[in-house]
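Standup notes, structure subgroup. Blocker cleared on the pyridoxal-5'-phosphate input:
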Amino acid sequence: MLTIDLNAIQSNWLQLKSLAPSAQIAAVIKANAYGLGADQVGSALYTVGCREFFVATLDEALAARKFLPAEAVIYVLGGIRNGMERDFIDAKLIPVLCSVSGIKNWAKTNADMGLTMPSAIKVNTGMTRFGLDVDEFNVFCSDKNLVKTVNPVLLMSHLACADEPDHSLNESQRETFQSCVSLMRNIKPGIRFSLANSSGIFLGEQWHFDLVRPGAALYGIAPNTDIANPMKAVVNLALPIIQVRTLSESASIGYGADAVLPKGARIAVVAGGYADGINHSLGRSPKGVLDGQIVQSIGRVSMDVTIFDVSGISLSDEQLLQSNIEVINNELTLDYLSRKNKLLGYEVLTSLGDRYKREYLLGVCHG
Ligand SMILES: *Cc1c(COP(=O)(O)O)cnc(C)c1O
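Run returned:
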């Protein structure tokens, strides 16, 4: 059972909002809300007042259009492939235009249809992934007609090292962005500006501008390693025990006979294997919590199941078959797992797969 605490996500969103009082706050729900369920997460955040959402792709945006109320503003971070402009216009999506050609295509489609549908423009301030380089941005700004047709309502950039507060690129990206902001402000009054992801919010108010775009912190991932994680935990993963056995002889365990346990050892087989993200998200030999005690997996993780050594557990076989082994909880946290397995919390979450039975917790809303 994968339990996703929507109340915790709402409360994380409200906490981030209070940290950026001069800005508005969106929610990034790309990749199915980092694997947790974009529809459930998006609707829960809408309830507490979130009105702007970022997704990565057109397909994610079209899905979000269905589960979010019509007033929701939906930005698509991956821009537009040439030829898809009409789909964006039909669904009232705001493309984040990331290239000179993307801008030209958006302008052409709008001009052909007699429209000036809103767009967002991304500038590259040091991440070197998406976005116009500053000289391209300057050329764009000098073309008043083009700016008018493209109708940018948001100018944004993305921080590369915001989770390392002392990294010099944070200040350098902020300064570069600030120069683009100053230029754009004169050309397009009323346009808004956005730089910070989750970690960027914690860099301070100078990084907030008009709109902040948290993803990870909403889902309980630590914004940086300098401070104790202030976010509420969102995810609990409990794997049901589906078989128990006590070894009558010393025996090798699982594929490759990699591990051996002595006579008398007891093992529990749980539902959940590498097809469910267990080797990626939890490491090759995950720990679990059973009946308040730490248990260790043993042998290789299989596609659908993982085997745990439960020799030290005093529950009866019948009780075990009614029990779950928790592999992500308040003790085995996302921060702990990502540190231990040298992964990002983002990778842990997005690896979890969709075979788990899911339970969404949602009580009274705080909005
Ligand atoms: C994914 C993404 C975010 C959210 O980042 P987090 O680190 O998860 O808060 C914000 N902005 C852009 C452009 C992104 O691609």
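Discussed briefly. The mean pLDDT is 96.
Next: hand off to the docking folks.
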